[in-house]
Amino acid sequence: xxxxxxxxxGDDGWTHVDLDGFGSALAxxxxxxxxxxxxxxxxxxxxxxxxxxxxxxxxxxxxxxxxLATEDAILDPELQQRFAERIAAPVTRVRASHLALMPPxxxxxxxxxxxxxxxxxxxxxxxPPAEESTAACCDGSVADVSAVMLEWNDLFVMTxxxxxxxxxxxxxxxxxxxxxxxxxxxxxxxxxxxxxLLIGLVLLSIVVxxxxxxxxxVGVEVLLVGxxxxxxxxxxxxxxxxxxxxxxxxxxxxxxxxxxxxxxITAGGLLTLGVAGGRYALSxxxxxxxxxxxxxxxxxxxxxRR
Length: 306
Fold this sequence. Notes:
By secondary structure, the protein is mainly alpha-helical. The protein is about 55% helix and about 5% strand.
């Protein structure tokens, strides 16, 4: 492409567009003053941005539209057309440079509708989408769960690491004080519930962070972990009922166990149905499970030292 002459490649992989050639390469249809400002304010781009494969493709499940700049000197319009055909997107052809979305467009930047039956008609590319397009994009909460989950990786990395560290500390503390713990028939169950909740969070983090899984598989795995945690906490609470006649204490432990596990079941059900909003239920699960586990750990500490 004719604009390629303005791209400068560094030995470290970083690239930028030459200041003198910026206008002709990227923005020949914008005012000269705007070209100079954009050239001076540009940031470097690493070549890895163009060569690293995407981990998830949102266009496979989300409605997509393509604005094709017919006077683009960097990206061949014919190549753009192939992009649009591959993702089955309606095409809007704009007589503009590579920076077709830069407002305000000069009067000469007119638009010609594509002859393709999938092409859209009159509307500046930077204007708000038409009402019907908005409805097509926002007609439900179903989305590409895999793509959305990538945005939450840091949260699950932190949650899994914190839960694993806390579980290790609880395990060591119980091991060092196992005689005191075993003297009280209720404390082993509380220790098991504490470790179960924390290990459950580690399992949930592993499930969510495992790459390449289909969306339905992620949802089913989260659902199974949630159901397993709920059953484990419930059984542990009921088995100690015969040793502790305080009904309110048993009821409170069952309630806390449900509070710390039902969000995972909810998240698994939503994610199985393809509802990306289920990730918020997972964040609730992380917060409540850690809070309940810390509360149980505090009870263990008090009872062991009593």
